């Protein structure tokens, strides 16, 4: 790794934080430019210093997941990596949904920690195999208990736009006008939507969409 990588380390356990900083110092290409102990400090440091990587404790005051979400939104160039003792798949899933691209268990060796930072800095994700398996298991369970959500997620961006408008009660012509496409295109998209959602008509599709109003609202906002 030729270029220098700037890192902030945020963890409310000062002894552990010092250990992380000391481990990273073994690599001359990694610079720890600031330390913090809370979610507020993590967000403030990221916005002010715009580091390449933010190493954040999941369970620190204010919540590491919340800090990760805020940083990925306000400083998208900063890559967030979570530090945790938790192997709970819910925590892993929440971290990934918040925008974290790395998840490191506390107790990881200095060599593994440095390797993780190097991987993330080069554009890769990093997750211990055990945690990756937990994330996969969570995804499989979600598919089993919520197939309709899985089907909704499979829609293309255009299909999502069409479904959002149909769920609001717009006709095919009104949808076409709003999206500036032809009615035939709208009908084609609806056919695709019906197939993916395994429904027979727009009414059934709308019922599914209404069950996920929050997600539909996020699609419209996007």
TrEMBL record:
Its domain of life? Bacteria
| UniProt-recorded Gene Ontology molecular function terms | DNA binding
Domain Response regulatory per the UniProt entry, residue ranges: 6-121
> What Pfam families does the entry give?
GerE (PF00196), Response_reg (PF00072)
Q: Which residues form the HTH luxR-type domain?
A: 148-213
Residues modified to 4-aspartylphosphate: 57
Q: Which GO terms describe its biological process?
A: phosphorelay signal transduction system; regulation of DNA-templated transcription
Entries under SUPFAM superfamilies matching the protein: C-terminal effector domain of the bipartite response regulators, CheY-like
The answer to whether keyword Phosphoprotein applies is yes
Q: Which UniProt keywords apply?
A: DNA-binding, Phosphoprotein
UniProt cross-references to SMART domains, sorted A to Z: HTH_LUXR, REC
Protein name per its UniProtKB record = DNA-binding response regulator
Task: Name the species this protein comes from.
Answer: Georhizobium profundi
Q: What lineage, starting at the top, does this entry show? A: Bacteria, Pseudomonadati, Pseudomonadota, Alphaproteobacteria, Hyphomicrobiales
């Amino acid at each position: 790794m030729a270029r220098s990588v700037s890192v902030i380390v945020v963890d409310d356990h000062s002894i552990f934080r010092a250990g992380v900083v000391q481990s990273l110092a073994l690599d001359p290409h990694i610079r720890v430019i600031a330390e913090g102990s809370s979610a507020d400090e993590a967000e403030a440091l990221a916005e002010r210093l715009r580091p390449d990587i933010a190493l954040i404790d999941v369970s620190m005051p204010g919540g590491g997941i919340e800090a990760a979400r805020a940083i990925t939104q306000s400083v998208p160039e900063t890559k967030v990596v979570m530090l945790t003792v938790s192997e709970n798949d819910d925590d892993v899933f929440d971290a990934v949904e918040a925008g974290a691209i790395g998840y490191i268990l506390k107790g990881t060796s200095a060599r593994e920690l440095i390797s993780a930072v190097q991987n993330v800095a080069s554009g890769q994700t990093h997750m211990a195999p055990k945690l990756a398996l937990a994330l996969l298991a969570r995804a499989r369970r979600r598919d089993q208990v919520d197939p309709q959500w899985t089907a909704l997620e499979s829609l293309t961006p255009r299909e999502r736009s069409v479904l959002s408008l149909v769920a609001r009660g717009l006709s095919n012509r009104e949808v076409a006008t709003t999206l500036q496409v032809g009615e035939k295109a709208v009908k084609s998209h609806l056919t695709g939507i019906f197939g993916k959602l395994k429904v027979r008509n727009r009414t059934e599709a709308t019922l599914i969409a209404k069950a996920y109003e929050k997600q539909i609202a996020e699609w419209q906002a996007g």
